Amino acid sequence: MNNETEVQEQAGAAPVEETAAAVEVAAPSEVETLKAERDGLVDRLARLQAEFDNFRKREAKERVDFRDYAVANAVEQFLPVLDNFQLALKSQGSAEQLRTGVELILKQMEEALKTLGVTAVETVGAQFDPHVHEALGSVETSEHPDHQVLEEVRRGYRIKDKLLRPAMVKIAINHAQVND
Is residue 133 domain-shared with residue 110, that is, in the same domain? Predict the structure, then answer.
C-alpha cells in the first residue's frame, strides 16, 4: 500500500485512507438529503391524491346538479300543459268543447317540446327508413310507391340528431314496382 500512497502523493491526490473517510462523512449528509427529498415527494403524492379525490367528488356533485337543473328546466315547460289538462278534466262543457280544449293542449305540448329542441320524425308520405321508422304492418296497394309510409300509428321523436324513439308506421307494398 505504500507504493500506492507514494504514487498518489506524487500525482497530487489524497491518500486512500483520507478519501474513504471523506466518503463516509459525505454519505450521511447525502442520505439525509435523499430522505428529506423522499419525504417531500411522499407528502406531495398524498396531497395530489387528496386533491384528485376532492376533484372527483366535486365533479360528481356538479354532474348531479347539472342533471337536476336540466330536468327542472324541462319540467318547467310542461307545467302549464299539466295545469290545462287539470282544468279540462274539471270542465262541464260538451264533448266538442272538450275536444277543442284537448287540441289546444296538444298544440301547447308540441310547443313545449319544440322549445326543448324535440322534433317529430317525418312519416306519412316519406320513404320508409329503418333508422327512424318501425314498420308495424304493410298495406298492398298500386296507388303508392313501394315502401312509402302510409299511416303513422305512433309518432317518433328526435332531439337534434339523436333519435329518442322511432315512429311506428304502416308501409305500402306495391308488387308492380317490386317486380319491375
Answer: no
DSSP state letters, 135-169: EEEEEE-SSS-TTBEEEEEE--EEETTEEEEPEEE
Query: Predicted confidence band at 7 (pLDDT cuts at 50, 70, 90)?
Result: very low
The per-residue pLDDT for 28 is 78
CATH code for position 92 = 3.90.20
Residue type, position 49, single letter:
Q
For the chain, give the number of residues. 180
Are the C-beta atoms of residues 119 and 158 closer than 8 Å to each other? yes
Looking at the structure of the chain, the number of domains it has is 2
Contacts 24+ apart (CB under 8 A), 102-106: 105/81
Specify whether 10 is located in the same domain as 76.
yes
- At 155, the pLDDT band (50, 70, 90 cuts) reads very high
Q: Is 39 a residue whose pLDDT tops 50? A: yes
